[in-house]
Amino acid sequence: MTSARMKPIYLDYSATTPVDPRVAQKMIPWLTEQFGNPASRSHPFGWEAEKAVEEAREEVAKLVHCDPKEIVWTSGATESDNLAIKGAAHFYKTKGKHLITMKIEHKAVLDTMRELEREGFEVTYLDPRPDGLIDLEAFKAAIRPDTIVVSVMLVNNEIGVIEPIAEIGEICRAKGIIFHVDAAQATGKVEIDLEKLKVDLMSFSAHKTYGPKGIGALYVRRKPRVRLEAQMHGGGHERGLRSGTLPTHQIVGMGEAFRLARLEMATENERIRMLRDRLLAGLKDMEEVYVNGDLEHRVPHNLNLSFNFVEGESLIMGMKELAVSSGSACTSASLEPSYVLRALGRNDELAHSSIRFTLGRFTTEQDIDFAVKLIRERIGKLREMSPLWEMYKDGIDLNTVQWAAH
Amino acid sequence: MAYSEKVIDHYENPRNVGSFTKDEEGVATGMVGAPACGDVMKLQIKVNKDGIIEDAKFKTYGCGSAIASSSLVTEWVKGKSVDEAATIRNTQIAEELALPPVKIHCSILAEDAIKAAVADYRKKYAPSQDGAEKKAAD
Question: Which of A101, B32, B55, B66 is least surrounded by Cβ atoms within 10 Å, i.e. has the fewest?
């Protein structure tokens, strides 16, 4: 169990996924033989590249039930979030200057909102309910006459909960507010039907769905038409919304990844749900283990647990046979506890003690059984070492202790 | 985050984990840190009649560097007089464990834990010991 050479078991699929070998195969020719620039109109190199790009666009559109013309290629979900939120805020700024989002959004949304605040916009950051879902009443109450954009994610990257975007969309549409959804963690995990959903802008990423890194897309609704101010200027690619030479191989990869997701998600999700339930069943009888976020409205891939009285970073170090994360990968370099768990109202100990397990296409039953055994053993060892566990066992209420904070 | 070999060694084979019973003769306890900051260290020393630390134990809630820092100081204080133990500096701990800058606070916490244990010892047992009194006063 402690072989240092062994590659850890990958349980961090929400950080990124491997490129599916079928996707990689399809990408390669577009790097070497079919290298043309899709914008070249004067020769077959360009024509065939353009055809591949459009076929991939169709595949992305098919997964989420929209018109391919509504898909704009970007470098990833971060760029899509930036283009959607800044682009809409800038275009509609004469209508109002207020935006609404949630405190548990990805940093790509939160930091974009902060930038807009610096430009003079006003932003309301809604607290989620303790289960991680939006409080619809609080949301309605936050809407002002000058609210122009609302951004709420479909699937949370840390706790995997599925936000009620259908309801939010109805509310926004009735009031003429642009509704953006970050769906980076959702494709291939939940059904997305943009014909039915009243969503105006939706961000996608390839590398969370077995495609390559560095490519994403933004859905921009045509009926009713949503206008954006471009954030990247140049050759006028993507109907002027996002200039820059299209990376054909990346786009082909995203198209193939989304095609596979459409064909396989139903069976894949059932298999992954079984594995996630097996992981939870193997751990839930332990003392002082808490599931973070609602378990019902949640993608099957995610299990976020707090192991009380054990600090997350030491836990990850103690489970080096598993590749997992504490909080999100983007913030794990900092010493702060997860802002998402804090927003749910989790106390410091529980926020510091969280581990995110995210399962995916290549996770096996053996992986889960190995993980359960290892986690139980290492948690036990770390708790033996924890003064907080000792105090808890002695019946001391930690909230009554005067800590010498440093 | 990459850890030094010494941190990993202390983390995987922590020295002197445990607790003395509180009423044991010569035992003093230092508890520092806070759960809110992500680390709490409890360091206990057992001092004999000659003022020498015979044994030491720790329990730590915190990252690998915090665990390693406290494990290391239990080794270092053993056999030292209380006064000598109080001279251990965080820079020595950080150097020994090759802690990166973001983990220096772990070594500071370990130094604080020694100081807190020594202070507890002096409060409980040492008012009669002149040397200790003088040291504490400067």
Answer: B55
